[in-house]
Amino acid sequence: PILYSYFRSSCSWRVRIALALKGISYDLVPVNLIKDGGQQFSAEFKALNPMQQVPALKIDGITLSQSLAIINYLEETHPNPRLLPQDPKKRAQVRMIADHIVSGIQPLQNLSVLKQMGEKKMEWAQNCIASGFQALEQILQHTAGRYCVGDEVSMADLCLVPQVANAERFKVDMGPYPTITRLNKALLELEAFKISHPSRQPDTPAELRA
């Protein structure tokens, strides 16, 4: 497999965690979203992913984009350890939390949107994340055990940790979100989350390396 990734992309980080958890080795091709006006806009990368976004994964003779589509494919082809619970209710909760982050928070504060916001980008990002986290905190108080849904790592956790990193980068006050904070801390102790961390990627700038 070949993963096209950017060290700081939260969507890429989700996929890196999934690959690490499932023990799938891969080659990483960095795509710098800022350098050269954004390497994702090159003709070469557009041919790979017409949406001109990371991540993209070449695997088993196909090229997939969109982090949850990739993670679902990995789940179906490498079922252990599972990232979707067997219980239908828990499975639905995992998908709900993942969608909440992937559709309801992250796109509103990603690079392409922030570019449009000009000087207000920090305030905009903070408001989008805080609004999403208020709802997420409430949901997690009903679903969480050690992790987002019960005591098994799931797709929801793969979405949560990178989004908390975004919140910290945009200086969101995490005080009102004790459940999110607790879960994030527990997940960051797991090896798959450590090795996939933005501070430990081949394309991480020296000043941001762990």
Automatic annotation (TrEMBL):
Domain of life: Eukaryota
An annotated GO BP: glutathione metabolic process
Gene3D superfamilies for this protein: 1.20.1050.10, Glutaredoxin
GO cellular component, one term: mitochondrion
Pathway membership: Amino-acid degradation; L-phenylalanine degradation; acetoacetate and fumarate from L-phenylalanine: step 5/6
PROSITE patterns the record matches: GST_CTER, GST_NTER
Domain GST C-terminal intervals: 87-206
Catalytic activity: RX + glutathione = an S-substituted glutathione + a halide anion + H(+); 4-maleylacetoacetate = 4-fumarylacetoacetate
UniProt key word Thylakoid: no
Protein family (similarity comment): Belongs to the GST superfamily. Zeta family.
Name of protein: Maleylacetoacetate isomerase
Lineage start: Eukaryota, Metazoa, Chordata, Craniata, Vertebrata
Gene that produces this protein: Gstz1
